[in-house]
Amino acid sequence: MSNTRKATHNDTKNIVDFLQRYHEDGSNLSDIPFDRGTMARAIDHYISYPKHVVFIHEKDNEIKGVLAASVEPFMFNAKRKWATDLLNVAEEGGLWLIKKFLKWAELYKVDRVFMGISTGIERSERLYEAVGLERVGGFYMQTFNEEQS
Counting Cβ atoms within 10 Å, is residue 136 exposed (0-12), middle (13-18) or buried (19+)? Predict the structure, then answer.
């Protein structure tokens, strides 16, 4: 049985385990060492901070997807807000995670929702389009400090 829900602090270790597996199994950031403590602190912050959220998708009590998100005021208009995903990794349940995020963003009466694709995984684009998001740009990347890996 599968379930998509808001994460709690009790989920942090399992979330970090899931994300570390993803990172090591081919993330485009796998050349940067994964620090479990840093990731756990970030997840705990996103769970605790009122304008952040972490959703998880579970199947048979195993995490299959994680989406962390934030709501912020626009830099040029403090009365208007936007929401964005900070982290979106799913082996399964990606559509359910996105739908939960969009409902959560609606609670804050945001003007815009932005979801990025920095992994180059085409299936993410199809999920975003399936829920009505529209492509408006893209990410461009430059790598510095390669020797620090």
Answer: exposed
Report how far residue 111's alpha carbon sits from residue 31's, in angstroms, rounded to the nearest whole number.
Answer: 36
CB 41 within 8 A of CB 60: no
φ/ψ bin of 30: left (φ > 0), alpha (ψ from -120 to 50), beta (otherwise): alpha
Chain segment 117-128, per-residue pLDDT in tens: 766 555 677 788
Domains of the chain are 2-148 (3.40.630.30)
What pTM was computed for the model? Answer: 0.88
Predicted pLDDT at 122: 58
> Which residue type, as a one-letter code, is found at position 96?
W
Extended beta strands in the chain, E state? 2-6, 52-59, 62-74, 77-90, 112-114
pLDDT tens, 74-126? 999 999 999 999 999 999 999 999 999 999 999 999 999 998 876 655 567 77
- Name the nearest CA neighbour of 66 among 83, 103, 33, 91: 91
Give the span between the Cα atoms of 43 and 114, in whole angstroms. 20
